[in-house]
Write a structure and sequence with these properties.
It is built from 10 helices and 13 strands. With about 325 residues, it is α/β, with parallel strands linked by helices. The chain has one domain: UDP-N-acetylmuramoyl-L-alanine:D-glutamate ligase. The chain is globular, with a radius of gyration of 18 Å.
Length: about 325
Amino acid sequence: MADLERIKSNSFVILGRAGMDLYADPPGTRTEDATHFFTCLGGSSANIAAAITRHGGQAALVTTVSDDAIGRFALKQLDRYGIERTHVRSVGGEARNSLAVVESRVEDHQSVIYRNGAADFEMTVDDVAAVDYDSYSALITTGTVFAAEPSRSATFHAFEAARAAGLPLIFDVDYRPYSWPSAEVAADVYSRAAAMCDIIVGNDVEFGFMAGDYDKGLDKARELVAATARIVVYKMGEEGAITLTPEGEFRTGIYPVTALKPTGAGDSFMGGFIAGLADGRDLRDAVLRGSACASIVVSRVGCAPAMPTPAELEGFLSSHPGPTTP
């Protein structure tokens, strides 16, 4: 069993994609009406890495990007956020980098994700075997890495190597149906991955999906805690979250804001939550800080550039009337 105290060393190896996000500009513009776009770093794992570095932590990304202009954009953006990319490899051929066309609007929001032949699925066992896991505090991954080979096998290999080094495994479920051959395959792979992890974060739909019944998602979360997980955060949107540990459960609310867009909340939550744990805060406080970060990001343009700094987070917490009563 990994020692969660290790997280306080605040240096994380993160598996998963980095890409480009294109936001129709100015905010409120529909994609089909846009003549200008705002570009920024995208991809769930890269966004989490950006959130962690914004909070003062260290993050190293392990992934593959396309050997073209979009891949080079992603590399330059990683540098901009201070994300270590020693283990980010460029791949040629027909592989193409992840690309998202997104709107900064809530009503009739459209996000169009391009993932055909995604470059990040080319991550191999050799890529993850080259990592010195002993030098990190924990391994973080999002569920997208499991959707195709060779990335799936590489990630399970990384899990084994990280566990051998005593690292906590942190899993953001992040289920994207369009990347998978079938829901049955996805449910099986996610359940296998979750059973290996110490901290699992997902929403009610994702846990319900793993359970095979959307009404049994909370039962699945409880099953994971009873078996192997040390912390499970079961998110319920506007209803807040239930955090489960072997010692018990507690509920927390959200920080209501006027949202500019619905995207980025999950990545920001993970970044703020992990930063809270790394800072030595108690579990409830870490969950609430993650919730506050999620609220901040949905009120701003972009995902990675919208991640708050510690000063911005403290300013938000001091001025906001507080979370809702769960």
